[in-house]
Amino acid sequence: MAYYIVQRKDLEIMKKNSIITFYLGNIKIRVALNGFWKDSYKLDSPIHSHTNFECHVLLKGNACFETEEKNILLQQNDSVLVFPDIFHRFRDQDKDSIILSFSFSASASGIKTKQDYYSQLFADQKGQRDLIVFQQNHIISEYLKQILTKIYSQKLFAQEEIRALLLLTFAQIFSFIAPKGNDEEYLENEYTEYDARLSIIEEYFNEYYMESITLGELSRLLNLSEKQTDRIIKKAYGTGFKQRLSRVRLKNAQELLKNTDLEIRIVAQQSGYQSYNGFYLAFRKQYECTPQEYREQQVKCSL
Q1: Neighbouring-strand partners of residue 101
Q2: Distance of alpha carbon 20 from the chain centroid
Q3: What's the mean pLDDT when you consider all of the chain?
Q4: Torsions phi, psi of 26, nearest 5?
Q5: Residue 12 has pLDDT above 70, yes or no
Q6: Which of 196, 206, 213, 229 is 20 to 30 A from residue 83's alpha carbon, by CA?
Q7: pLDDT band, residue 8 (cuts 50/70/90)
Q8: Number of domains in the chain
Q9: Is 196 helix (H, G, I), strand (E, B) or coil?
Q10: What is the rounded CA–CA span in Å between residue 96 and residue 94?
Q11: Which of 35 and 233 is assigned the larger pLDDT?
Q12: What's the rounded Cα separation, in Å, for the pair 61 and 73?
């Protein structure tokens, strides 16, 4: 796969969209896009530390990653996650090596979830870890390469594509750093790729139902085939893409008919329907009444 290599001189371009925030369970993650960069090589870089987490991925070549207590030889497609306040540096690298690095913060979001992912991954592990190495993880490498191709994109949904890829990347990373209990407990606690993809799907429907969205477009965001994407949607909602989109649109139409005096034609437009007839037929099929009849019923119920 061809991918764009971010040079430091280009970082100014990214400042207007420099921070992407998203959630995995009750973990709030903030990634600085203007901290997404690569160096062809860093011969004997000075030892340093950061207040945030930092992730380095060796896209090509070999390199030695050094902390105050460890020396680790990294090979192509190896990744290393460095915890905050850990002094580290690269040394003795191949001159043709390529390292991609980015920083991020992770905090408790306050969102109530079945599992307290933040405590399991971070709060309960505080002071017990300095770094984690993911050996030969091609999946993380490929996700990050794709992010690099999209950082400068001006096309519609480019930011959403980056956010989707980051969700998948961090689902991979967090599955590695999750504490291992027995297999049953681990599988229950792990935030899986399925969970990450479902979060993307939910956000996609909720944010863009008013627009002309397609299964193909959503599949590209998830880096899946249309069949794979539709399978996830059916597993989560019991219906396919078109039926789920129709459900979200009609639910919005219900709210507008009930709580506003907007013309029904405007309700149709604001619910994502390009034609009044299409909206009318879909609404009547779903609720066995016309939009006008539904509005009149709601008025009677409120009296």
Answers
A1: 37, 56
A2: 9
A3: 79
A4: -100, 20
A5: no
A6: 196
A7: very low
A8: 2
A9: helix
A10: 5
A11: 233
A12: 11
pLDDT digits (tens, 9 = 90+) for 104-121: 888 887 666 667 777 777
Instruction: Give the span between the Cα atoms of 42 and 54, in whole angstroms.
Output: 16
Considering the domain architecture, whether residues 200 and 156 belong to the same structural domain is answered as no
Domain, as residue range, for 201: 193-303
Question: Is residue 298 domain-shared with residue 234, that is, in the same domain?
Answer: yes
- Same domain for 152 and 172? yes
Are 20 and 33 within 8 A, CB to CB? yes
pLDDT of residue 303: 57
Q: Does 175 map to a domain?
A: yes
- Cβ atoms of residues 290 and 296 within 8 Å: no
Q: Which amino acid is at 261?
A: D
CA distance to 234, 252, 282, per residue, from 262 (Å): 33, 13, 19
Structure tokens at 58: 């060796």
Helix ranges (H only) for the chain are 117-121, 138-150, 158-177, 183-189, 193-208, 215-222, 226-237, 241-259, 264-270, 276-287, 291-302
Cβ neighbours for 272, distance < 8 A, ≥ 6 positions apart: 209, 210, 211, 245, 249, 252
Q: What does the alpha-carbon distance between residue 137 and residue 114 come to, in Å, rounded to a whole number?
A: 29
User: pLDDT tens digit string along 163-192?
Assistant: 888 888 888 888 877 765 544 444 444 446
Of residues 268 and 298, more confidence is placed in 268
Which residues contact residue 72 at a Cβ distance below 8 angstroms, ignoring those fewer than 6 apart?
64, 65, 66, 80, 131, 133
Yes or no: say if 209 and 243 are a contact pair by the CB < 8 Å rule.
no
134 and 152 in contact (C-beta within 8 Å)? no
Both tokens assigned to 180: 């291992």
